[in-house]
Amino acid sequence: MKMLLVDLETEWRGGQNQALLLLKGLRQRGHETELVAAYDSALGERAGSAGARVHFVSRGLFRLPAAQKLRALLRAGRFDLVHANEAHAVTAAWLAQWERRKPLRVPFVISRRVGYPIGKSSLARARYQAASRIVANSKWVAEQAAASGAPREKISVVYEGADIPPRSTAEQRQRARARWGISQSVPLLGCVGVLLPDKGQEWLIRALAEVRKECAGAKLLLAGDGPCRARLESLAQELNLTNDTIFAGFVKDVENVYAALDVFLLPSFFEALNNSLLAAMAYEIPSIAFNKGALGEVIEDGKSGLLVSGPDVEEISRAAIKLLREHDLAQRLGRAGRIRVEQDFSADKMVEGMVSVYDACLNRGL
Length: 366
Prior knowledge:
elongated, alpha/beta, seven-stranded parallel beta sheet
């Protein structure tokens, strides 16, 4: 199989992590895979370092430069299928299919990772109508896409995946904590994600104030950056938690964040899935998440983690205190979380799911 993956996002987010895992997994299975990426993109840099062939393009006005590059690549007839990994790529790949004299008919796959409705304009709908398959990263996303006009018969669900890492050692934990000046005995809560309003980090800061009443010295490590950082720092100051809330910024070697944590929390309001949660569970960190979006498809409440209803400080803090105090429960949930990821949310399982989608498209002669 010769596949062309397209991703024009410049920042490193969950979708770009999945694209890199997919590129690596396809190449390991003997498939020829190339990437079209935006200039100065984090994905393009990492994919190139991993040995993938990368075609760099400008996103440009209305994605036209990218569409022209894609059209040239597809016209050469080297690729069996084109896969658009995010919204900018969807537009470029859709435009690339059309020529005045001879439309290109290469099977076109779209990844859908958000729960927001598809646009109501005829142009927005046309892109999804043209797709051979629409791959949702959760059942919740699939339902949201179908409800907003995506052809239900074209939708497949392939859960995102995480690499299964070696278990962290005591030495790794010590080094990771030393990086942020945290002693081994300090109870440490943490979250990894962009600092945005819908990611809900403010509720973790508010909950920390309550957790510290029961678990003396507890701290919160927030890995990630974004437009809400200044507001969150102000909130920590307002609650007298400036010295207890660590704003780590973007951490490239994020495995050191997971190695330091006692409990992982994901307070997202509108989550299609979440790479950080999968990673935390793969590292055997007992995890707590809002029961929103698709997060209930990942955590089985009380079995592989804990679910809380949402932005309720008392409920969040109670769940965190429970895991910090009940070590046997925390260890049991951590072990079960890792098994959950190994069985249903591994990178290998994601790649195999995508290969099945590609095979279905090609076997139908679309």
